[in-house]
Each structure stands twice: as structure tokens, then as C-alpha cells.
Write a structure and sequence with these properties.
By secondary structure, the chain is an all-alpha fold. Helix content is 64%, strand content 1%. It has 50 helices and 2 strands. It has a two-stranded parallel sheet with strand order 1-2. The termini are far apart.
């Protein structure tokens, strides 16, 4: 500060007898050298016109700011007492002598500070900018006018058009902002405004007050250029003036939004600029490229200075007159191609832009306006032809160097340049420099588009004849690192794009084994980390899941097929890992390969072109991997379960991840049905396991959209629904006689679980198809009749499971014998003459109907033909029902047996079923009211009689061992239900009512005290499972008895007595 103050004081003395406050322009050369010497000393530069350092820029800014504020303080007469509080530059500013505008502008010119001066101007209101520009123009016009004055004017003009350099501006406390605040404060003082109002001045140009109609920057500068045209005496300055003028007109009149150039075109222009400047002894640097970018951007962005007084015709006329004047003066001459000029290149670009824009604008203009502009256009065309601009070309090396610097220094638009850099295969041939830039600037390449271009470049290298293995491995690692740094949304987009390129990623064609081995190690390590790190645990944290997703995504991007194979292997063969694998894949919907967002909606065509026959969606690829795995390896029961659960989870729609618009499942249910279900069900030669697994998968697929039937219908109708229903009905018909050995010696071990599953699947599928048939019956009539006719080959009960499909189109067809025991309306029911349902089988058919569905059971009970007033009819019905129940029991599933038990209770309660009951197992009968337990006791006796019939000699070879085991399970189920029913009638104990009193308990004889008159029934040898189930029921009943003994209320005696009766029935059957 002291150096600057001393320099100005010395300059002021050199002005004697005058002073700096009244300095004339011609006198600056005599008095200004102390100031310039001081600035050079502070900036530590010999020449101020050279590229200044950051320190030099700061000092120059500070000096211009201080001199300008000193000038304003003088004009406004600011009080020093106020200044030292408000002005941060007061110490330096107060030590300077009084100055005038000549000093300010000569300081700017001498220090080559046009850019700094313009940046300060841009922080002012537009009206004030016009005022300062008029002062600058007046200064340039005043004698003596040199080319340095003209160059200062042109540079300030162009810097204004380039706008603020936000990258250099810094934060809120930078010098420009401080200057703007002080300028606003001083201006407000001169306008009689309070300082507080001045402080509230908004500094952003978008918030500046509207300029007055006379504040037209373009009008000022163009007319100023016209006035000083005689002082331009060099070709370069003429070319520069014309170029700036044309760009100003183009951006002010001919465009209303920024022109976005393709990145390749930007690179071509910048490379040409750099080539020209290098030939002019300028060194390639980031700053040089940054300034070239600012010039390019200013030439294609609408000007912030909207003309208010000047019209397009007037502006073009001034420019063409200037061009003709300088051409007549011999200044515009053919440019020497051996010495290219940056100004000439800029002018060529400017003229071409204006002519193209005028040509386009003709469509919207009137004929008169077109005629007015035609002369100017002809002049510009003539100028373009007469100057014969040399063809400026740039080499690939310069292109690569420029792009590398833009990327390395994060210059404007560096991400698009990174994408260009990644896709230019000619640059990648320069291996070392290309790879070094890529390795050092990975963050610049972390964009989806850029990554895909890099991927294509790597695949080209891998599939070339001369593959550099070490370089390919290095590049593959860099690409994988870049992929890992992407957001989850971009990762999924990249995975989908990779699947479109090749299902095997980088390894789609033959790749050197060294590259493959490296990937195999990474793949194994990734999945080992996931499994061994506790990832298979159900309690895996969200952090662990995110890590696992990142690991799988990284290897999947390199080779989707290999990663999906590893996922399948882990899901099936690692205990508990199926859940984690499903969660991982659900976070990576990109591996589905079928993204439905708009930006990839048209990818189907590209996919078919890129991959042809090998094109597979990600979900199809996953299904193929699973298919191969279950075909090549024999799965244990737990592995089959994991396989089923994993597919079930993958079919479930999940909350959308980043980038997804709606809930989607990783595996569409229709794909699972088409791949795993239909082929197995249509081929009857498959094992029963395959069929059972297929049914479980079909059930899981139908359950996915259980709450959205319309969604189910969409894909079910694409899976051959009527043939599928027929195949399922065939299988169900076979399971109805699951304990019988089929002809031909083939043994199908149909389980009752399979039978129940078939019923559920048939019902669910029938509901979905039935809804579609009901909506458009005419469209489905042919298929409907085909299916109904096919049902004639199957058991008559199967049709009832497809009742939603038939709707009201067909009657209910049942054995004719059923109609003899049921009064069913002829409009809805018709009889079938079936050989296996002869005379006396009506109750058997009735029992089978009761077990099919709740609605059918209700119909059977309400239409049962029985005269309860006649005891002989009731007795005959009860005996027939006992036989029918004996025939039906072994073939019932648990759900069917539950329905039959409910029907039996209804019959007993209503008095239609008579079950004789005697308490022959007790020696002593206390006074008890057992009427509330009549149903349970009679039902227990009925089951005892059924088991006596089944265990008789006539039925000893009727069932296989599995059948006997099933009967045992059904009886145990019935006993549990009866015990639950009895317990439900037990009153809740009150406080203090619970005491242990064995003396008051009724005498319940032990099994050894049973009367010898009790009939012992010898049953055929049962299987271990059957005996085990009976023992479990026995143990359960005895535990219940012990618990009930603790209750001392009077009703508890009745409960205990009933439980003892049930216990005796169980023991009797077990003997």
C-alpha cells in the first residue's frame, strides 16, 4: 500500500504546477511511469501485458478499484468520518492524491487491465454501464488517439459481451462485490438515498433495475467504433473490430437462446484456435483454453444487453460501412496463410454465423425487411470471399491435447469432453497418454454415457487381433472403478446397456485367458465376501446390503451372465442366502434388461441389432442360469425349498429403487410360468417332484398379483390358460385316487399337499380366467366349450373347481344317484350315468360334494332329502352315511376333511344324523349335564365306528402304508378340533378359583380298569407315521386332561368327563 501511495504522490508532483485531479490524456506518458513501476514491483512482473499471475491480478484489481472509488468519493464529496467505517479500502484510498477519469482509464490501459475494468462494470446497473462507457469513448476519442486506446475499447466491449467470469469472481467478499457495494453506497448518496437503501442493492444482473430507454450499450459501442474508424491502421485491429461487431449483432438480434454446439464441433474450433495461437508463440495452457472457451460461449449466447434504440438494419449498415471503408483503405487484404491470424479466424466464424442466421430469419421476415438486409448480406458475402481466409486445420494430436487439458483441469463442459475422449478410438491408440489421462481423471468419466463409450472402446480392444493384455486388464479395472462410483440409478442404466451389448459383457467373444482369470478371481472374491461376511443372515444390515449390491453390480457389469450364475448358485446352495440374493437383484433392476423408462423405451430395436439371436433380457438370462443349474445338479429338499423361495421373492413387486417410476418385480410371473411351469406340466414323463415344484411356482406366480386381478389377467391370458387349466384338471383327477397303484406299473407318489395345492391353483386360475370370460363371453366361447368337453374324460368332481370359468353357461353335472338323496333344481343340476356310482351310492357322491367347497357344502346340506319325522329314515340315513364316510375319509385332504367335520357337526346338531352313544367305559357316573357336549361325544363315537370299519378284515388290503399314515393324520386332526371345541366351552377361571384338589376329581379309570366287555378291535399293522400321529393325539389329550383337573368349578367336572371319553376312544383305536 505504501509503495502505491508513494508512486501516486510522486506522479502528482510530476504534474506541477497542475495535479492528477486535472490531468490531461497527453500528459500521462510523462507522469505515469512511477505508478507503473510500483505496480510492476508489487506484481513482480517485468511486463504487465504478459499473462499475469494470481498475485498480479489481485493487485491490479485492487488498484483499479481503489482509484475508481477515490474518483467517486471526490465526485460525491464523501465525509472521511463515514468513509473509514464503510469502506474496507479506506487506508489505501485515503493516502492517494485526488485523481480524475483520465488517470483511471490510463491506469487501465497501461496495465492491460481491460478485463478487470469490464468485470467491475458488469457489477453495475446497465444505466451506469452506459455512463461509464460514454466516458471511455470520450477518453478514446480525445487527442492523442492511439491504437492502444482503440484496443482498450474493443477489449472492454468484448469482455462485457463475455459476461462475468464466475470461476474467477470468487465468493461474496471478492473485490468486485466490495466495489459494487461501495459504488452503490456512493451513488445513493449522490442521489439523496440512505446508506441502508444502498446496502440493499441487489448485485445480480438479473435483479438490476430496468435500464432507461436511452441506455443502449450496443448503440454506444457501434457508434463509437464508427467515430474512431480513422484511428485504426492495422489489418489485425480491423479484423478484430469487425469480428466483435458481428458477434455483438448476432447475439443481440439473431438468437433468443444459447446455441448448443456438439462437443465434437467445440473441440474442432478450440483446437484450431490453439493451433493458431501456438504458431503465434503462445504456449498451450489451461488458461489459454479457458479464454478460448469463453470467447466461443459469448459468440453463441444471447447478449445480456438488449438493444432499445438500435435496430438490426442500422447495426448491419454501420458494420458494412466500416468494412467497406477499411477495404477501400487497403486494410482488409488477403491474409497470409503461412502466418495465420486469430482475428482472421474469428472474423470468418462471425461472418458465417451472421449470414446463416440472416438466411434462416428470412422465413419470418416481410419482403421489405428482406430487401433492406440484402445489401448488407451481399457486402458480408463479398467480404468473406475477398479475404480468402486460409483453411485452418488441427491435428489429432492437438485435439487430444486440448481435450486432455479440459478434462484434467475441469474446464467448462469437461464431462461432455470426457465422453468424447472415451469414444475416440484413434486417441486410444496413443495408449500411454490416453490411459494416463483416464487413470488420473476417473471422476470426470463418472457419467453413464461416458462409461458406455469407454466400454465400447474396451470391447473393441479386447476383440482386436493384437490385444495388449496388461493394458486391457488395467483399462477393465479403471472402467469397473468408474462404474462403482456411479449412483444406483446410473449403475442400473449401465447394466441394462451392457446387457444390450452382450449377455457376457466384456467376454462376449474370445478373450485372452489372462484377462478371464483375473475376472474369475474378482467374481469369486466378491461372492465369498458376501456369504462369509454374514450377508446370508436374515438380519443383514442395510449397510451390508448396500455393500453386497455394489459388489454384485461391479462384477455383473463386467460379465452379467457369470454374475447371475453366481447369484443362482449362492441362492440355492448356500443356506439362507436366497433372501439376500433376492434383495440384491431387486436393487439392480438394470439386470432385468427391460427398463421401461422413456429414455430406453426404444432400446428393443437396438438390442435385436446388436445381439441378434443371442439377445436375452436379464430376467430371461437369470431363468436360463437357474434352469441349467437344476438340470445339472441333483437338489436336496432344502435346496429345492431355497430355489422356490428365491423365485417367489423375485416375482414380488418391490418398492421402486432410484430411477424406477413404479413397483416392479425382477422376474415377471409370466416368464417363470412359461419357463418353469408349462414345459414340465405339458410333458407327463417328468418326475412327480418336477410337477410338484412346477405347481408351487405356479401358485407363487398367481399369488403375486392376488390383490390385482386385472394385473394377473394380463399375463395369465398369454400363458395358454385353457390348455393349462386342462392339464391341471388332469393332474387333479389323478390325485383323487392317490393311494391306488395306476395301471402299467408306474407309481406316482402324489401327496395330499400336492392335491391341496392343485385345488388352490385351479381355483385361483379359474377365477382369473372366469373374470375374462364373463367380460367377453363371445370371444372365449370356443375355448370354453373345448375345455368343458375335455372335462368328460376326468372325474366328475373336477368340474366344480372350475365353476368360476363355467359361470352360468353349463349345468352342474353330478352322478344320478346324488339326485335320489338331494332335491336339487333341474334348471341348474343334471344327472350323469357313471358306472362307479350305481344304486345306493348317492350319499357317497353327497359326501364328496360336501368336501369340495364351502358353497357346495351349504347347497348339499340345505337340499338333503330326509324326513326327520320318521326314525327309520334317520337310522337308515345314518348307517349309509357311516359307510359313505368310511369310503371318503382316506381320500380327503386336510381342508376337505375339515369341511366334512363341519358338515357332520351340522347333521348331528340338526338331528339328521343319529349316532348311538353309551357310556360303557365308566364304572361310576356322577350327576353331570352332558347335553352341551353331545355333538363332540357323538362325533367321536362316529369316528370310532369309521375306524372300526376301516380296520376290519374287509378293508385290510384297501390302503397302502402311506394311506394308513394319512388316515392317522386326519384322525389326529379331528381329535385336536374336538378338544379345542370342548376347551372353548370351559368357563374362564376367576381369581382364587384355581386350587389343586385331587380328592374332588371324578374317578377316571385307567386303561387297565376298562370293563372286560369292551370290544377290542384288531387293526392291520399301521405305519410308524400313523402310530406316531395317534400317540401325539393321545399325549395331547392327556395333557389337556391334566390341565383341566386344576379347575374346581362344577362345569369343569363335565369337561374332564368328556375329555376322558375322548381319551378312551383314542386308546381304543390305538389298540
Amino acid at each position: 500500500s505504501a509503495v502505491l501511495q508513494g508512486a501516486f504522490l510522486l506522479a502528482d508532483k510530476l504534474c506541477l504546477p497542475s495535479s492528477l485531479s486535472s490531468l490531461q490524456k497527453a500528459d500521462w506518458s510523462r507522469v505515469g511511469h512511477p505508478v507503473l513501476e510500483a505496480v510492476r514491483e508489487l506484481c513482480r512482473q517485468d511486463e504487465l501485458s504478459a499473462h499475469p499471475t494470481k498475485t498480479a491480478v489481485t493487485w491490479i484489481k485492487k488498484l483499479v478499484c481503489v482509484v475508481w472509488l477515490k474518483l467517486l468519493c471526490r465526485e460525491t464529496g464523501e465525509d472521511a468520518e463515514m468513509a473509514w467505517r464503510e469502506n474496507p479500502f479506506f487506508p489505501l484510498q485515503n493516502g492517494l492524491p485526488e485523481v480524475n477519469h483520465v488517470v483511471l482509464l490510463e491506469v487501465v490501459r497501461s496495465m492491460a487491465a481491460a478485463q478487470t475494468f469490464a468485470h467491475f462494470l458488469l457489477y453495475l446497473p446497465q444505466s451506469q454501464i452506459c455512463t461509464e462507457l460514454e466516458r471511455l469513448v470520450q477518453h478514446v476519442r480525445s487527442s492523442p488517439t492511439t491504437e492502444d486506446d482503440v484496443r482498450l475499447f474493443l477489449e472492454v466491449w468484448w469482455e462485457l459481451w463475455k459476461g462475468r467470469d464466475e470461476q474467477k469472481a470468487g465468493g461474496e467478499d471478492n473485490i468486485e462485490t466490495v466495489f459494487a457495494r461501495q459504488f452503490a453506497r456512493l451513488s445513493s448518496k449522490s442521489s439523496s438515498l440512505t446508506p441502508q437503501a444502498a446496502k440493499r442493492l441487489k448485485l445480480d444482473t438479473s435483479d438490476l433495475p430496468a435500464s432507461s430507454p436511452t441506455a443502449d450499450v450496443l448503440h454506444i459501442v457501434l457508434h463509437a467504433l464508427k467515430d474512431i474508424k480513422d484511428h485504426i491502421s492495422t489489418t489485425d485491429l480491423c479484423l478484430l473490430a469487425l469480428s466483435i461487431s458481428l458477434d455483438a449483432v448476432y447475439t443481440a438480434f439473431l438468437i433468443d437462446q444459447a446455441v448448443v454446439l456438439p462437443t465434437k464441433e467445440k473441440m474442432r474450433i478450440l483446437s484450431k484456435v490453439i493451433s493458431i495461437r501456438e504458431k503465434n508463440d503462445e504456449k498451450l495452457s489451461p488458461e489459454l483454453i479457458r479464454e478460448a472457451q469463453r470467447d466461443l460461449r459469448a459468440s453463441h449466447t444471447p447478449s445480456q444487453f438488449h438493444p432499445s434504440r438500435m435496430k438490426l438494419g442500422e447495426a448491419l449498415k454501420i458494420i458494412t460501412e466500416l468494412a467497406q471503408f477499411w477495404q477501400n483503405s487497403g486494410l482488409l487484404k488477403v491474409v497470409n496463410s503461412s502466418d495465420p491470424s486469430y482475428s482472421a479466424f474469428k472474423l470468418e466464424q462471425s461472418v458465417q454465423r451472421v449470414l446463416t442466421a440472416l438466411q434462416k430469419a428470412e422465413v419470418a421476415e416481410t419482403m421489405t425487411e428482406m430487401d433492406e438486409h440484402e445489401a448488407e448480406k451481399n457486402t458480408l458475402r463479398g467480404l468473406l470471399e475477398s479475404l480468402a481466409f486460409p483453411a485452418t486445420e488441427s491435428t489429432p494430436e492437438v485435439n487430444a491435447r486440448v481435450t486432455t487439458i479440459i478434462i484434467s483441469h475441469r474446464l467448462d463442459d469437461y464431462q461432455n469432453f470426457a465422453a468424447l475422449f472415451a469414444s475416440e478410438k484413434s486417441w486410444s491408440a496413443c495408449d500411454e497418454h490416453w490411459m494416463a489421462c483416464l487413470e488420473k481423471n476417473q471422476a470426470a468419466f463418472q457419467q453413464y454415457d461416458t462409461l458406455i463409450k469407454l466400454t465400447s472402446t474396451l470391447m473393441s480392444k479386447l476383440h482386436s487381433e493384437s490385444t495388449n493384455v496388461s493394458q486391457c486388464r488395467k483399462l477393465m479395472k479403471i472402467i469397473a472403478d468408474i462404474f462403482s462410483a456411479l449412483s444406483l440409478k446410473d449403475k442400473n442404466k449401465a447394466l441394462a446397456a451392457m446387457l444390450r451389448l452382450s449377455s457376457r459383457g466384456f467376454f462376449g467373444c474370445s478373450v485372452p485367458s489372462a484377462v478371464t482369470d483375473g475376472f474369475e478371481k474378482e467374481l469369486n472374491m466378491a461372492f465369498n465376501c458376501i456369504i462369509q461376511g454374514g450377508g446370508a443372515s436374515a438380519a443383514a444390515s442395510q449397510g451390508n446390503l448396500n455393500t453386497a449390491v455394489s459388489l454384485v453390480a461391479r462384477v455383473a457389469f463386467q460379465n452379467p451372465e457369470a454374475a447371475l450364475r453366481s447369484c443362482c448358485h449362492s441362492a440355492i446352495f448356500n443356506k439362507g442366502a436366497f433372501s439376500l440374493m433376492a434383495k440384491i437383484l431387486q436393487q439392480l433392476p438394470g439386470l432385468r434388461g427391460q427398463r421401461e423408462s422413456e429414455d430406453e423405451a426404444q432400446s428393443d430395436e437396438e438390442e435385436s441389432i446388436n445381439e441378434g439371436k443371442d439377445a436375452l433380457s436379464g430376467s430371461g438370462l437369470l431363468c436360463r442360469c437357474l434352469q441349467e443349474m437344476i438340470k445339472t445338479k441333483s437338489l436336496s429338499a432344502s435346496e429345492k425349498e431355497q430355489f422356490l423361495k428365491c423365485l417367489g421373492l423375485l416375482m414380488m413387486p418391490v418398492m421402486p429403487v432410484e430411477g424406477e417410476e413404479r413397483m416392479q418385480s425382477f422376474l415377471p410371473p409370466e416368464e417363470v410360468v412359461n419357463i418353469f411351469v408349462l414345459p414340465n406340466l405339458s410333458t407327463m414323463g417328468q418326475s412327480s417332484f418336477d410337477i410338484e415344484l412346477s405347481l408351487q411356482l405356479l401358485h407363487a406366480a398367481l399369488s403375486v398379483d392376488g390383490q390385482e386381478q386385472a394385473s394377473s389377467a394380463r399375463w395369465v391370458l398369454d400363458c395358454s390358460p385353457f390348455p393349462l387349466l386342462y392339464v391341471l384338471a388332469q393332474l387333479h383327477s389323478q390325485t383323487l385316487r392317490c393311494w391306488e397303484q395306476p395301471p402299467g406299473g408306474t407309481v406316482h407318489h402324489w401327496s395330499m399337499d400336492t392335491k391341496e395345492l392343485l385345488v388352490v391353483v385351479l381355483t385361483t386360475l379359474g377365477q382369473v380366467v372366469g373374470a375374462e370370460v364373463a367380460a367377453a363371453p363371445s370371444s372365449w366361447s370356443r375355448a370354453l366349450f373345448w375345455l368343458y368337453n375335455k372335462m368328460e374324460e376326468l372325474d366328475w368332481t373336477v368340474r366344480f373347481h372350475l365353476k368360476p370359468v363355467w359361470g352360468e353357461h353349463f349345468k352342474n353335472e353330478v352322478p344320478s344317484s346324488l339326485l335320489t338323496v338331494c332335491d336339487l333344481p333341474e334348471q341348474e343340476w343334471s344327472g350323469l350315468d357313471l358306472p362307479q356310482y350305481g344304486q345306493g351310492t348317492g350319499l357317497l357322491a353327497w359326501m364328496e360334494c360336501c368336501s369340495i367347497s364351502d358353497s357346495l357344502q351349504s347347497t348339499m346340506l340345505s337340499h338333503l332329502s330326509l324326513d326327520q319325522r320318521r326314525t327309520d329314515h334317520v337310522n337308515m340315513f345314518s348307517k349309509g352315511l357311516l359307510v359313505a364316510l368310511t369310503q371318503t375319509l382316506p381320500w380327503c385332504s386336510v381342508s376337505q376333511w375339515t369341511r366334512l367335520l363341519r358338515a357332520l357337526r351340522e347333521l348331528i346338531t340338526s338331528g339328521r344324523l343319529h349316532v348311538p352313544f353309551s357310556l360303557e367305559y365308566v364304572d361310576y357316573l356322577p350327576l353331570l349335564d352332558l347335553r352341551r357336549f353331545s355333538c363332540e361325544l357323538r362325533l367321536s363315537v362316529l369316528l370310532l365306528r369309521v375306524l372300526q370299519l376301516l380296520c376290519g378284515s374287509s378293508c385290510s388290503h384297501w390302503l397302502a402304508a402311506d394311506g394308513w399314515a394319512h388316515v392317522g393324520r386326519l384322525y389326529a386332526h379331528a381329535v385336536r378340533e374336538m378338544i379345542s371345541s370342548v376347551r372353548a366351552k370351559l368357563p374362564l377361571p376367576s381369581s382364587g378359583a384355581l386350587t389343586v384338589s385331587a380328592s374332588t376329581s371324578p374317578k377316571t379309570p385307567a386303561s387297565g380298569d376298562f370293563s372286560p366287555s369292551c370290544t377290542s378291535v384288531k387293526a392291520p399293522k399301521m405305519s410308524k407315521d400313523s402310530l406316531k400321529d395317534l400317540k401325539q393325539a393321545d399325549l395331547l389329550k392327556s395333557k389337556e386332561s391334566q390341565m383341566e383337573e386344576e379347575v374346581e368349578t362344577v362345569p369343569s367336572q363335565e369337561v374332564l368327563f368328556v375329555l376322558s371319553q375322548l381319551f378312551c376312544h383314542v386308546q381304543h383305536i390305538q389298540v
